[in-house]
Amino acid sequence: MDYIQVSLAESIPEQARDYASARIGSLDRYAPDRVDFAWVNLTSDKSVIHAHARLDLKWVEVQAYAEADTVTEVIDLLRERMRRQLVSMHSCVPVHN
Fold this sequence. Notes:
Elements: E1 4-8, H1 15-25, E2 35-45, E3 48-57, E4 61-68, H2 71-89
Parallel strand pairs: 1-2
Antiparallel strand pairs: 2-3, 3-4
């Protein structure tokens, strides 16, 4: 993956940046095409952590959203939702002869 930008709200610990980069950055192996850019945003309101991510592939954008009680839980849930989307895209990719 060429580039990952991780944005954290003030209430999110800085360690979440590395965890999000590693977990979301590993998704490129599931993508049907090269991932040019990844963006992850982590915020919180009271006891809920919110995560939104976007992957820009050459020809499409993949997005996912998740909520959970902890930073690691929300990032893992977000990663799984994006992974499922990427895997399902393999059957949608046109074959050029």
